[in-house]
Amino acid sequence: MRKVQVRATLLALLLPLLLNATHILHENILKPQASKMIEEMGSELWEKTGVRAYLIATNEVFPERYNLVEYTKKYESNMSKPYVLFIFAPYAIITIESGQKGRVGIIASSDEVKKLYDYDKVRDAAIEIVAVKDNNSDEDKHNIGVVQAYSVLADQIAASKGAKMTTTLPDETSFVINILKILVYSGSMFVFWIFLFRPLIKRIRDGK
After folding, report:
1. How far apart are CA 166 and CA 151, in angstroms?
2. Mean pLDDT, the chain, whole residue set
3. Is it the case that residue 183 has pLDDT exceeding 60?
4. Contact criterion met (CB below 8 Å) for 108 and 84
5. CB atoms < 10 A from the CB of 132, how many?
6. Where residue 203 falls among pLDDT bands split at 50, 70, 90?
7. Which of 8, 116, 150, 207 is the most buried (most CB within 10 A)?
8. Out of 13-17, 149-153, 161-165, which region has the weakest mean confidence (pLDDT)?
9. Cα Rg of the chain (Å, integer)
10. Where are the alpha helices (DSSP H) in the chain?
């Protein structure tokens, strides 16, 4: 009985730390491989710069002019400063009249953190993937877009802090993305990239 009580006490003490350990605050569109890559990049970024990059990737259909800042306030207790919050909402309504959907938001905990990255470049990294016209599913494009944009965000913050990331997508990724824009690719390409092509490039880059 005493052992059970001790375990319960330890769990109660550690649970807040475990909850704060994740960089994905909310998601219902990511595949396990994409989530794993986000967590790897987020952990490395925090270890090297002290800045946390959180993610919300949601399929919620936000109405036109929906206030993303107000929406994220419910997650404030799960975030530690300094931080930047990347929001990817592909089904959010831009305007009812046009029928266009998809919003990207980047919220920094301070003006100092905001200076560490280029909002437009991070946003475009996601939009360029999603906008590709091909036979790939929306789910696959959303996953690739989120990982690509988060990688750009992490690289920029790290560079501003004088650090270099090793878990982000390498510079060669831009070449791969251009190829994917031309060719019709399938969801299996994402799995191929994660488990074969990405590790191979990383080993070559590290001289192994």
Report:
1. 10
2. 80
3. no
4. yes
5. 16
6. low
7. 150
8. 13-17
9. 18
10. 2-21, 32-49, 68-72, 111-114, 119-130, 138-160, 173-182, 188-192, 198-205
> Can you tell me the distance from the alpha carbon of 89 to that of 60, in angstroms, rounded to the nearest whole number?
7
Span 17-30, mean pLDDT? Answer: 75
CA 99, 174, 183, 55 torsion: positive or negative? negative
Domains of the chain (ranges; CATH) run 2-205 (3.10.310.50)
Maximal CA-CA distance, the chain:
64
**Which pLDDT value is given to residue 132?**
73
Q: Read off φ and ψ for residue 50, nearest 5 degrees.
A: 80, 5
What spatial distance separates the first Cα and last Cα of the chain, rounded to whole Å? 52
Q: Confirm whether pTM is higher than 0.85.
A: no
Q: Given this model, what pLDDT does residue 54 score?
A: 98
Three-state DSSP class for 101? strand
Q: Under a CB-based contact definition with an 8 Å cutoff, are residues 89 and 127 in contact? A: no
pLDDT for 19 equals: 40
E-assigned strands of 64-137? 83-93, 101-108
The token pair at 21 is 């350990």
Tokens representing 89 are 């909402």
